[in-house]
Amino acid sequence: TIDNIPSINAPKILKPLYAEKGITEPSPDVKKLAKDHHLIQHQEGGYFNETDRSSFLMENPSYPGHNDGTKLANVTRTGDFQNEPILPHPTDSTKKITPTRNYSTLIHYLITCESPLGRLHMNEARIIHILQKGRGQYVLVYPDGTIKSFVVGFNTDKGEVNQWVVPGGVYKASFLLPLDSDDQAHESSKDHLLISEVVVPGFEYDGHTFARKDDLVKLVGNEKANELSWLLGG
Ligand code: GUN
Q1: Could you tell me the CATH number of the domain that includes residue 198?
Q2: Ligand 1 centroid to 219 CA: how many Å?
Q3: How many domains does the chain have?
Q4: Residues enclosing ligand 1, CB less than 6 A?
Q5: Residue 82: domain span
Q6: What is the pLDDT at residue 141?
Q7: Nearest ligand 1 atom, CA 123
Q8: How far is the CA of 127 from the centre of ligand 1 (A)?
Q9: Separation CA 72–CA 233 (nearest Å)
Q10: Atom 7, ligand 1: which residue's CA is nearest?
Q11: How far lies 202's CA from each of 56, 119, 208, in Å?
């Protein structure tokens, strides 16, 4: 396939129940983590800080007319990733796609018991994710309706991954799992997931699209979309 997502390590997709259990106040350690990294609320849920943005500008490969799906501006794609979708399918046609992009951006992204879900969305660019601390779960929904789910964590002996790549044009959601157990009953105020995300070309809002219920229904059908609708957030 077009990513490095493991096919073992495919956990069930279960909603974290922090709010329902009254666990909404992160532990002092988790609060300190957010403060030390200067994190602010992210529109997807969770917290983030952009820590780097290249000052070099390139053509936006997703800009209409900048590519034919196989060639980026003066760059030929080779290897396993050459069939990666590069044109997302924005549902918001009012968005004006800008013709340039910074070469790269870098963020920290944190989810906690207070905000345990990164809502389902897609970016035009592929995103490299590197685990810094904690543990969590990702769900990806591909343009052909394939759903992938995997745990990110440091227990590599259990198939958890500490770096992963989400292709452009693929919907992703992230949410918390307990740090020290597979049992959702052990959710605690200490649970958190801190990652770094490298985006190439760099992040822009006009390349970012939240999934709506009808997008999900189109991709995976009614039944599955109902099952996963909590990933859209409230
Ligand atoms: N600004 C708002 N959201 C984001 C994001 O996900 N990445 C970057 N780099 N900047 C943002």
Answers
A1: 2.60.120.10
A2: 25
A3: 1
A4: 42, 50, 105, 107, 199, 203
A5: 28-232
A6: 96
A7: 6
A8: 12
A9: 34
A10: 203
A11: 10, 20, 11
